[in-house]
Amino acid sequence: VLNFTDNWAEARMTTNATYKSFSSAVINAEVGLHVGLYGINVTLKNPVVQFNETINYNEMFSWHDLTEEEYEGALEKGLPNPILYIVEKFTLNSPCGLIFQYRYSGRFASATLTAFCSWMLSNILFSMPVILYAGYMMIVTAGFIFFSMASFSTIMNVPQCVFSIGTDSVSTEYSHSFWLALATLCTIIGTVVVMLNFLMPERIKTAFSVCVDGCEDEDVFYREGYLNSVFLDGA
């Protein structure tokens, strides 16, 4: 799920800014930038009606669409100046180079965030009498998630581009999806399962109902038998 969210990094401010090009109108609104692994989402909101309209913009731009033509299309649509300013920072010709930082870090993060497959496999293994391997796969799942976080966090190793709108400035910070990935319990679950499998294998098998049916079959198979002497004498 985290692979498709747009909240890996964000920047948010409430400021006074020029509303649109060729206009001196100034608005007070909340400007938001939400960065995902596949693109950005720029918002401009204010619940108060200003200039006979409710300001509520939510524009999506994927990394493949952030070209000069796409930016020119945004200009032709007449999007507000704060949105155009942020989008321009992510174009190919921008001196900030944000599109290269976020696009490549997001691409590698998305490639390693294939944890869903290993997580499904670990759940399948938990339902089978191979608890140790299920624990190993849970640790592998955590490894994929941590590698994706490490890949995305490389954007913080370069000088941050500051967004200045009106009299306020802001830069991007880690957001919900990044911290949710960090808060995963896969590492804890996998480590505990592996440790318990070595320390108390019988108890963990009982906890996961492993070998219950097999043990019952063995009890039936090895149960003490009785010979019918009457039947044997008749034979």
From TrEMBL:
Membrane topology type: Multi-pass membrane protein
Keywords, alphabetical: Glycoprotein, Membrane, Transmembrane, Transmembrane helix
Main localisation: membrane
Transmembrane segments: 133-158, 178-199
Signal sequence coordinates: none
Subcellular location: Membrane
InterPro entries membership: Dual_oxidase_maturation_fac
GO biological process: protein transport
Pfam name, any one: DuoxA
GO cellular component, one term: endoplasmic reticulum membrane
Family recorded in the similarity comment: Belongs to the DUOXA family.
PANTHER family reported in the protein's UniProt record: DOXA1 FACTOR-RELATED (PTHR31158:SF1), DUAL OXIDASE 2 (PTHR31158)
The name this protein goes by in its record: Dual oxidase 2
Organism whose genome encodes this protein: Oryzias latipes
